[in-house]
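agent: user wants the structure for Pre-mRNA-splicing factor SLU7 from Abeliophyllum distichum. delegating to structure tool.
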Amino acid sequence: MFGMPIGGVDSRVAAAATKWRRCQQRKYGGRWRWRQFVEVEEDRHMVSISAKLIMATASVAFKSREDHRKQMELEEARKAGLAPAEVDEDGKEINPHIPQYMSSAPWYLNAERPSLKHQRKWKSDPNYTKSWYDRGAKTFQAEKFRKGACENCGAMTHDKKTCMERPRKLGAKWTGKSIAPDEKIETFELDYEGKRDRWNGYDAASYKHVIERYEARDEARRKYLKDQQLKKLEEKNGNQNEEGVVSDDDEDNEDDLKVDEAKVDESKQMDFAKVEKRVRTTGGGSTGTVRNLRIREDTAKYLLNLDVNSAHYDPKTRSMREDPLPDMDPNEKFYAGDNCNRVSGQALEFKQLNIHAWEAFDKGHDVHMQAAPSQAELLYKNFKINKEKLKYQTKETIMEKYGNAATDETLPRELLLGQSEKEVEYDRAGRIIKGQEISLPKSKYEEDIYINNHTTVWGSWWKDHQWGYKCCQQTVRNSYCTGAAGIEAAEAAADLMKANIARKEATEEIPTPVEEKKLATWGSEVPDDLVLDEKKLAEALKKEDERRREEKDERKRKYNLKWNDEVTPEDMEAYRMKRVHQDDPMKDFLH
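agent: tool returned. relaying tokens verbatim.
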């Protein structure tokens, strides 16, 4: 029984049995002696331990298939809300969506009912506290100096070196007067949260004076504004009583000066359009006031077109990008969608700034719109200035070279009408008799230069995606001109090549019959008059068998062996007949 593996129980049973076995060894004084006397006890205890652990975990670990199916159906019904939620020991409902590995208690807690106590903090140290020091508190004040007290003030809670009072000329040790009371000394054992709480011990009442100061300033401002507005009303009423006539300017400013006292007092009604938002605080920004600029009388954008298939409205961002009324006259509608704002004003400039930053980064510049916006904006500004300068320089260069037709400068007569005062006389054939021929302007490139006896320039002829010379229709740049004879020769060569191609295609269509040639046994063609001698063929077969036996067993080979290089047709036929063909499916049955 000792040392045998334990079957039928899990690892927890094995661990418990091993622990009990070691205790029994120490009890009976030795391994071998215990083995002789307590084998029966071991069997009994093993069975009892395994039964206890199996009973403890049977309700959790071992379930039949039907019970497991019912349990899964109940869990699904609880998640869907069709069945009531499970209740723990304290009567609280357990969320059915909590995973099983969190809701199920460990086996060693022996939980009889479902509970989430094992997930809560069930160990709490009563010594921990969240209280703080009583600042400035005093305890006992002596009437005379005590031994061991502070030599400066006379308090027992500190010494002279750590005394916080003003150093006296003669301390309380020598005068015995003005003995300071003892400070209240406290020690706390804080928990993890108490040590890291920044506001532990903070008194909110200490900030009350700051609030009172700001409230007094706001109250004084409101009072001053009310007095100024009432003063203007009194001045206006006095002027009207004296003159009895109200000017046009006073009528225009009447709404500005008229202030209702009830509205002045009701400050909450004056700020009805304020929207409080967090701006630049630890939670997202300092608390500031942002006014809602939309006029309440305007029609909401999602009510402009009630068609379901019209522009989409996003209620979360309050945006409608497309035009809700695309068929309406642009001069009459006041809202054309949010996309109109994206392509107008500073939005378009910002978009071009982003595009310029991306293109500059692709070209190797170390610029990033989000990381360094000022640098990107300055770079874009310099780019626009340089672009305008380059554009202006290019324009000036073109105008200097070709002139400006939009100016008021008069062109020369010879350029305007193509005439001049030079007299040139021609004959009937068009030859010049008197005067000088007008020279045509030429470009900076060389013109009308003919090489290699050509009469036209390169590029004057085009055929089959190739440039050439028109005079000889050649496509080789540095070729020599062959004239009309070369053209005729090229055409004849092309016709001949086409005829050869057609003849070759015609011959390939009719395949020539191939004669099958029989090969002799030694590889040459079999002559028509070849006749094998039957006797010589039988001898050759015997020789071939002997040669094969000698190859298998070299001990049968003779010492004085004569080799004959002459091969007869019978020998080749015998070799062919005895040869094993690798592709023959019956080769294994030949020998």
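agent: one observation worth passing along. The chain is about 40% helix and 5% strand.
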